[in-house]
Structure prediction request, 146 residues.
Amino acid sequence: MPLSGAAQAALAGMPKIGTKGWVFTLGGRTKFGGFAKHKADLDVRMLATLRRTAVERGEEPEGVGLPRWVVHDLRRTARSLMSRAGVSADHAERCLGHVIGGVRGVYDRHAFSREKRDAFEALAAQIERILNPTDNVVALRGKTAG
Prediction:
């Protein structure tokens, strides 16, 4: 699966573990698995961070919660952001590893590597705009009211 430049840069900065040079591993001997347990640990840490931030702001930490989410929500969000970026439905579906069915799925054996790479670049650009929005307000010149 092709990766966006942003994903490649993020992975390049991660430490490689074990003799196989894995980034996502448990101790370097096996690939990463057990998402449910690790997600639960992440939720606990995230909730603690949110509550600590609330205390720093002078708010009551007990009122801070973490919305229920599952790992699959990340795939759903990526798919929705690809639609927002104008990625064709077929290419976005292929990025998620979904099979295109019917006659097209039987006869069209093209790998769509360039299209998937472009889709992931569009997704990365959407995420960048969300994380680092630009000011889109322009002051108008002219007569003032009054």
